[in-house]
């Protein structure tokens, strides 16, 4: 089985996936877990976290034959890669534009393009075709643009909706935290809470919809829009522009990228280490279970 790590700035989504099947296959994602993206969580701590999570769905670490990491947090990426090598005896697939991802990253600086944006584009190209647009609502809201040729050509990055609301209420002395609820009761807020919701929630939707319209004008076509990310559901139901919602879009893209790499359908483990038992006999320390 394949383990996919979608590491965001705030949370990490872990997906347990089947390796067999089509490149984009919703049923291939067997289980998901969301944990914090702690940059101080060491390799052994990641392993200690991973084992009980897998057991909740009847799996074990010995059944993992490949790992793919898409991370926007360098420290977490490093600790996860170290965990894979030291505890799972696996060389992880670390997503970047340097890999054969199945999509051409035609930005000005391809190697600086985030792994999450690449994975989103790969999945969107398979699901919606070209051209298409992805809006990923996270700590930052990323908009990915795939052109008529099927290339990832860039997009837009805005502060996330929760970040905007937090910044407003933390910097303004007389504004307290309000729930992110849509739709607000009205555009003209008659009290402070309603006014903040109108400006920060409805206004944020206008920001994203306006950016998508501008991108469509530049593309010269009303390209389909896919949305993903933790906050997407708040906005999709109220939007005429943001209609299609794929909550696991990034994981689907990570899995599709992993399947393109050599040997991923086989066991990517290093040879099992031999150790000497108490009676002097050799024993294999790792039992490999291959799907």
TrEMBL record:
One of its GO terms (cellular component) is cytoplasm. It is found in: Cytoplasm. It catalyses: (R)-pantothenate + ATP = (R)-4'-phosphopantothenate + ADP + H(+). Pfam families: Pan_kinase (PF03309). GO terms for biological process: coenzyme A biosynthetic process. Coiled coil: none annotated. It is an enzyme of class 2 (transferase). Keywords: ATP-binding, Coenzyme A biosynthesis, Cytoplasm, Kinase, Metal-binding, Nucleotide-binding, Potassium, Transferase. ATP binds at residues 6-13, 139. Pathway: Cofactor biosynthesis; coenzyme A biosynthesis; CoA from (R)-pantothenate: step 1/5. Its EC number is 2.7.1.33. Substrate binds at residues 114-117, 192. Its cofactor is K(+); NH4(+). K(+) binds at residue 136. CDD domains: ASKHA_NBD_PanK-III. GO terms for molecular function: ATP binding; metal ion binding; pantothenate kinase activity. A monovalent cation. Ammonium or potassium. The active site is at 116 (proton acceptor). Homodimer. Belongs to the type III pantothenate kinase family. Catalyzes the phosphorylation of pantothenate (Pan), the first step in CoA biosynthesis. This is Type III pantothenate kinase. It comes from uncultured Thermomicrobiales bacterium.
């Amino acid at each position: 089985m394949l383990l996919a790590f979608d590491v965001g700035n705030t949370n990490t989504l872990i997906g347990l996936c089947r390796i067999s099947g089509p490149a984009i296959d919703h049923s291939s994602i067997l289980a998901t877990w969301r944990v914090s993206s702690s940059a101080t969580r060491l390799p052994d701590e990641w392993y200690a976290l991973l084992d009980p999570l897998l057991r909740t769905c009847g799996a074990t670490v010995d059944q993992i034959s490949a790992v793919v990491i898409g991370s926007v947090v360098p420290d977490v990426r490093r600790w996860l890669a170290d965990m894979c090598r030291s505890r799972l005896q696996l060389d992880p697939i670390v997503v970047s534009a340097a890999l054969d991802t199945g999509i051409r990253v035609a930005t000005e600086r391809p190697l600086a393009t985030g792994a999450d944006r690449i994975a989103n584009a790969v999945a969107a190209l398979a699901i919606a075709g070209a051209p298409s647009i992805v809006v990923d609502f996270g700590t930052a809201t990323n908009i990915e643009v795939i052109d008529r040729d099927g290339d990832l050509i860039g997009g837009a990055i805005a502060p996330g909706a929760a970040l905007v609301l937090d910044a407003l209420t933390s910097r303004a002395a007389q504004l307290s935290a309000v729930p992110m609820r849509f739709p607000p009761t009205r555009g003209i807020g008659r009290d402070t809470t309603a006014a903040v919701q109108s400006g920060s929630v409805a206004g944020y939707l206008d920001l994203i919809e306006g950016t998508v319209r501008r991108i469509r004008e530049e593309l010269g076509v009303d390209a389909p829009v896919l949305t993903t990310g933790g906050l997407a559901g708040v906005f999709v139901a109220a939007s005429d522009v943001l209609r299609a919602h794929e909550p696991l879009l990034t994981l689907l893209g990570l899995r599709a990228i992993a399947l393109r790499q050599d040997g991923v359908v086989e066991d990517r483990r290093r040879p099992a280490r031999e150790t000497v038992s108490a009676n002097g006999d050799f024993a294999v320390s790792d039992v490999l279970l291959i799907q």
